[in-house]
Design a protein that fits this description.
Layout lengths: L2 H6 L2 H9 L6 E2 H8 L3 H13 L3 E4 L2 E4 L1 H10 L11 H6 L7 H4 L8 E5 L2 H6 L1 H6 L5 E4 L20 E6 L6 H12 L3 E5 L6 E6 L3 E6 L10 E5 L2 H17 L1 E2 L2
Parallel strand pairs: 5-6, 6-7
Antiparallel strand pairs: 1-3, 2-3, 4-10, 5-8, 7-11, 8-9, 9-10
Amino acid sequence: MKLYGYLVSSKNRIKIMKALSIDRPLKSKEISKNTGLSWQTASAELNNLLKLKVVEKIGTGYILTEKGFFLITRISSLPSFDKWIFERFVQDHQIHRIPPMILKDFGIWENVEFKTMHATDFLAKEKEAILSCDLQYRAINPNVTKIDLSLIEEKIGKIPIKFIYSNKSLEDEESCEYMREQANKGIEIRLIDQEQMYMIGRLLDLNDANISFRDKDGNFDFSNYIVGNEEEFIFWCRRNFHHLWELGTPYV
C-alpha cells in the first residue's frame, strides 16, 4: 500500500502526526491525552508509524522524521479531518492505488457531491454525456461501452472523443469488433493493464466530471461516484486521465 494512501485512510494516524513536532519529543501518554485517543490505540498507531519511518523514537518520546514532517505538511492542506466529507469514501475505496503525486491533492475540493446510481444507468447515459460536450469527451472504463455510433454521429469528428479500456477487452470478440468500429470512426482508444486501472468515470468538456475507484475488495465500484464541476476537481480528474492515457497502448 502506498504510504500517502495509508496515512490518509485513518483519522487516528493523522491526529497523531499532527500532534507531533520534528524537535520536541512527546511520550505516548501525552499523545493519547492530546489526541483524545486511548493509550492502547495511540501506542499501536505509533508502532505502525515507526515502521514506516515517519515517526522516530527518542528515548521514551516520539518526534516526526523529515519524511513524516513533509507528509503531514502536505496532508494538512486538506480541510479538518473531523469534518472531512471524504473520510467514509476513503474507507470504502482503494485510493492508495492512485499515484502519490496525484493522491496528495485528493479531497481538497469543496463543491463536489456523492452520487449513487445503478451501474446500468451510468452506462446508459454515455450517449447523452457525449452529446452534451462541445469541446471534448474522455472516459475510463474497464469494459467496452457499446453505443450505436449513429446516435452520436454529430459529435464524431467534431470533438475529440477518447476512451481508456482494459486490455482484457481484447479477449472478447464482440468488444474487439466494437473497438474497431470506434477506431474507424476516429475515436481514440488506449488499452491498459486492468491492474493499472485504479479509476473509472468520465470527463465532459472542461467543466464536469464523475469518477469512482475500486472498492475495498479491489472491484470497480460502478455505483458510487464523486461528481463535480469545481475547477480544482476537474483539473485533478484530468491529471488522472492523462496519467492513465500515457500508460496505455493505442488501439489501431
